[in-house]
Amino acid sequence: MKQFTPALAFASIISLVNAHGFVTSPEPRMPGSAMKAACGEQVKVNQESDNYGNIQGELQVASSQSDYNADECDIWLCKGYKFADNKDNIQSYTAGQTVDFKVDIRAPHTGVANVSVVDTSSNSVIGKPLISWDVYASTATGVTSDETSFKVTIPDDLGSQCDTAGDCVLQWYWYAESIDQTYESCVDFSLSGSGSSSGSSGSSSASSSAVSSAASVATSSSIAASEPSSTSSSEVAATSVPVAVQTPSAVPAAQSTFATSVRQSTATAAATAAATASAAGAALPFPTDSAQDVLSWIEALVGNLVGNN
């Protein structure tokens, strides 16, 4: 069970006071365990309670915490929010692509603002801001629609600087000069579909390769099945009947057809049938005198065969 400590209460009070503005679309970086390790537990708690708060409010919390590491936190870059906590939240853009932004401002304070591509290794703007306002969230006019809903275009001169996710962010920056408060939101992205999108491209390539291989196998099988065999008819006959069932040469031609048509399964069965037919032929010579003699010979032959079985 969580305990409500005085430090946590203080962080919560500050978060209520400092709720002012944050990007809601595209999905921005959020606090996480990597931020806690670098910026300290109470700074993370402060931002989890209210991510609309400003950097100066974070620094007020951090100043009394022993686990705040200024260098590792790098609080002026994305308010200390870390890429390591947001690896599953990476946008994929291409040069020249238009990106819709939505910002929620809960309390106006006159200042200046812009959205820029920022190099995260140096916390420096690459090129010129993609959009900027000389007067932003004025207390005189109130927040205007073009300050909370607008479009930016991804530059076409970034080269390979932002190909890898984490190297660059789209950073919304609002400095409320009238009260000396700074608000930031960062959107992680990769350019030209690299970065987080590379794993899926690789999977797609692997899948395509597998499909192509399967198609090649299927095609080869179809060709093999459709092409006529070069094997001669005598070779087919020899391979289609087991060697053990080959008809002995002693069997007469008329009986050979009969013996193979019943598909004998062993050499012994074939030899027995041949011997029986041969013996029957020797005991009963074929008559040539009359039709009646032929019929009588056939009856005798059948009787001998039945008797031998």
From TrEMBL:
Q: Which GO terms describe its molecular function?
A: metal ion binding
Q: Which Pfam family is one of those matched by this entry?
A: LPMO_10
Specify the domain of life of the species encoding this protein: Eukaryota
Per UniProt, the keywords (alphabetical) are: Copper, Disulfide bond, Glycoprotein, Metal-binding, Signal
- Which InterPro entries does UniProt cross-reference here? Cellulose/chitin-bd_N (IPR004302), Starch-active_LPMO (IPR052282)
Cofactor(s) essential for the protein: Cu(2+)
Span of the secretion signal?
1-19
**Annotated Chitin-binding type-4 domain residues:** 20-189
Q: Where are the transmembrane segments?
A: none
Q: Which family does it belong to?
A: Belongs to the polysaccharide monooxygenase AA13 family.
List the protein's name: Chitin-binding type-4 domain-containing protein
Organism of this sequence:
Penicillium salamii
